[in-house]
Amino acid sequence: NLGSTAPSPTSNGSTITPGTQNNSSETVAPVTSGNITLSIISTPNSGPTVPINPCQGASCQDGSSCVSLNNTHFCLCSLGYYYKSSTCRKGKLFPGTITVRVSGTSGLEDGNSMAYQELHFQITDFFKSTFANSDYEQTVINKVSISSSARSEMRAGDSAIVAEVLNIFAETTKENETTVSASITNAIQNGTSVTGYSARSLCDYYGCEPEQDDCSNNLLCKCKQGMERPNAQVPVCVASAVRCPDTCNSDHNKQCLVNKNTGKPECVCLPGYKESDGGICQECAFGYSGVHCEDQFQLILTVVGSIGGALILCLIIALIVLSSSKNKNKNIEEENLIENDFQNLRLQQTTTGFSNPGANGSIFPKVRASVPGQPQNPYVHQRSLPRPDY
């Protein structure tokens, strides 16, 4: 029994693009390959071409999905199962990598191209022939890539591609990794387009830690560090979503940000903090702020403010000194004017003979409040009034 599959749209990492076919006089010819019947769609060579979907009208049953090539399609079950007699049956898996010699690589990136379809049948026919006398069931091509290292070993005009494959046998098969690898190696030595094969452990294929039973119970195997299952029903472990550590929080003055260049999250210090040699986020030095303490706005503001304050203080002091100097000069001028007036008055008294005995040498006369002992007028006789005699 043999089966034949191709990668699903998600398994080969590329988007399936429908091929182009004539929309008139289409002929569908069933072709049986082992346990799987492929529908080959042929069209006349003349007339306009329109895109068609080989999976249109397909009847993939038992939860299987339809995978289209260029002009054919087939049904593909979930991981660990093979499609046979319209049902998905559990099988035994043998993952590995093969190197295939091809005449050209153009179009291999398109899962709906004729070049990819030819490569698909080239690989599946090789394993069909290799395991013709066993309970081999199906081959799944997970990924196809161009090999630059193997290209130098090819003869002129040829190229080499590397395909990650998964050979599925019946669940009750007696085959093991050793016998499968030996059969493939013998087939390569007999001269085929396949030039190399490398077996891969099932634990490594699932992304699990190595176990004694080679991870036969794929849902229970422990994922490798940095990998996890999307959910409990998925046997394959995938790369974990990169996260920041639990200590990356505001309590430790840290935050988790996505690097715009790498797309990966990074734990960095909060704005206003800088990471020290010990990995601790410490507050920025005085005058610095922002991310990584690279913002010197506060320092510049402080320096400018200090200089401005000093200039204002100097200006105030200068105004005070200037005002005091003006007041002092004004007082000196007033004193000089008064002194000049006094001297002029003295000079006038000397030349005119006028004197002011009440001034006592001053230009301003003094007023006496007490009655003088001697009358100023000698002609006035001072006597008391007569008293009444009654």
From TrEMBL:
Domain of life: Eukaryota
InterPro entries for this protein: EGF (IPR000742), SEA_dom (IPR000082)
Record-annotated SEA domain positions: 90-204
SUPFAM superfamilies: EGF/Laminin
Localization per record: Cell membrane
Entries under Pfam families matching the protein: SEA (PF01390)
Annotated spans, Disordered: 1-29, 365-390
Membrane-spanning intervals of the chain: 299-322
Chief location: membrane
Keywords: Cell membrane, Disulfide bond, EGF-like domain, Glycoprotein, Membrane, Repeat, Signal, Transmembrane, Transmembrane helix
Residue span(s) of domain EGF-like: 51-89
Gene Ontology cellular-component terms listed: plasma membrane
Name listed for the protein in its UniProt record: Mucin-13
Gene giving rise to this polypeptide: MUC13
